[in-house]
Specification:
single chain; Arc Repressor Mutant, subunit A; 10 helices; about 10% strand
Length: about 220
């Protein structure tokens, strides 16, 4: 393949805020240069392998990854803790322990109904389900044929992007999860998140107390 198309593929992935898949790349190239251009998904895979080899050989801090059924530029693993430090300070997309637990159950058991989910968790899940729906991490996939026809829930492409997965088959196996839970870096990051959550809850409580005190004056 001509170097110009290697550069074009690189530019398309670099300029995309969302994972861009092979069909979108091919459509963009043929949309500009004509349908007669011969380019296949295998060509794109070869280009991505060449680009990543070039990045790694040059010691560049990023690479192209396969995520959410498409491709994105991402920081290399050895720099993730530094990027994660800054990201952990941003709370808008942070998920609570209950939300992560619920999301994990849905991911591994999907499609799953709310009653089935609550049987596993042992608590009402209305609020958590609404939160995950609002964040577009889960979606309603249909209804069962049982009495009452309860809704079925499953994960979305946004879920894949959030956790850096290409598809659901990339979910860690139970044994891998146990190993991750014992990893020192994971424990350190978990403790930081927990401390941030405690500090945030404390700030919210103090702010509410101040607001209540102001109302009574």
């Amino acid at each position: 393949m001509d170097n110009i198309y290697k550069n074009i593929i690189e530019a398309l992935i670099f300029s995309s805020d969302e994972p861009i898949n092979q069909n979108e790349i091919i459509r963009a190239i043929k949309g500009i240069d004509g349908e007669e251009i011969e380019i296949t998904p295998a060509d794109i895979d070869n280009v991505l392998s060449e680009l990543n080899f070039k990045y790694e050989s040059s010691g560049i801090s990023f690479k192209i990854i396969a995520v959410a059924k498409g491709y994105l530029f991402a920081t290399r693993e050895e720099y993730a803790k530094y990027v994660g430090f800054l990201s952990s300070e941003k709370t808008k997309r942070r998920l609570s322990q209950a939300a992560l637990e619920t999301l994990a159950i849905i991911a591994y058991k999907q499609p799953i109904t709310k009653p089935e989910l609550e049987t596993i968790r042992g608590v009402n899940s209305d609020y958590i389900l609404n939160t995950l729906l609002e964040k577009k991490l889960i979606t309603i996939t249909g209804r069962t044929e049982t009495i009452g026809r309860p809704l079925l829930y499953g994960t979305t492409d946004e879920f894949l992007k959030y956790f850096g997965l290409y598809n659901l088959s990339d979910l860690p196996k139970p044994r891998e999860i146990e190993e991750i839970m014992q990893d020192d870096d994971f424990i350190e990051q978990k403790n930081k998140i927990m401390m941030n959550a405690i500090e945030e809850n404390l700030e919210n409580t103090l702010q509410k107390e101040e607001e209540d005190a102001g109302k009574t004056e």
